[in-house]
Amino acid sequence: MVATPTRLVPLLLAGLPVLALPCTAQFHLPSAPPQLPFGPPIDLAAWERTWPEGSAMEGLGRGVVGDFTGDLTPDLWQQTARALVLFMDHSYMDYSVEFPVQATAIACYTKQAGGSRDRLAYTDDSGVHLLDFRVDLPDPWVSSSLGFPHWKQARSLDCWDLDQDGDLDLLAVSADGLKLYRLLSDGQGAFVQAPNILLGIGATQAFALDYLPGQPPCVAVLNQSWFFVVRSDGVRAKVLANPGPNSRIARVRQAPAYGVPQPDCVAWLRDAAGGGGVQELVVVDALSASLPELQFLGLDAAAIFSGDHDGDGSDDVGLLSRHEQVVHLIRNQRDQDHLTEPRFAGAALEPVVFGDAGLAGVENTSVPVLQDANFDLRADLFVVDPNVPRALAITTEPPLSPPPPPPGIGA
Known about the structure:
By secondary structure, the chain is mainly β.
């Protein structure tokens, strides 16, 4: 299958045994819930690029960032209802291309030892595939089917080393939302299917994480009624009631403590119990003896995503407004220097405006990306604005000069 570049565009640019049930009760709203304070807009430099001419923007989904062209600079794959669009870094190819496939889920399959570029993992009507974009070939699209047709229209695709053998594996939710699929890589390009895990009714989202200290990776799952974390043997390690249909979850990595790796946790955006259009942010981890960290929000967010925006080793969280062209960043306050701080409770909402913040527009359905693009060790924001339409990379700028040494050092 050959896709023709659509326009030259510069761009810089997820009935089982139960181990423990710490809490299945929903949280109750106080009469006047406290809300996160709003801080000043973050000072970032933005590159704005128009959407490729002739490429449809309907049904915007997930975006993923990686080195898909092998030039050590970031590129962006954006999922839409009718195609996948690749925006190449402007320092290399200076154009965008459309791959005409209706993908139901995408993920970055990071380059392994000896590899020269990242690949795009995706699912569609025929199963699961790995897509390699080869700029050195007349037909640049090299899409390899992995040979598992029951992965047809699988959702919430994720890449993770599930068996801890050093090779990247795949997991996804089945099209009917009932099962968790897992494919284990042999490191030589082949995959072996691991036993499926039953998820209950209507699972919509799943991703792997290092949740239990010293244990194999777990999988965080969200379905119509519950949020839970399931171990590799199918036993559920944590179960909490899901109070509404608009929930979303994101993996949050934590900075080491005294050189010791810390387990990942889950940031959970959900409707507050009692309704009223109020959202809350819940942070779930394996180490908290009490109820999960809870914070009420004063906004209507359509998506939650994570990345280390401030470079302290701990993932921060981004919230995409549903109808306004604004992303709100919440900094993770727990890092190597603040080991007992709450992660997000009390932190200010820091708005990043990529359009008219006061103008209601087309409903946002995409999932932005927080990932370092300019090699300053701080995650940058990649987001799509459906109102213009356009794609943007909003980057943190590295300091112009090294910070001064502490008093008494280097004098």
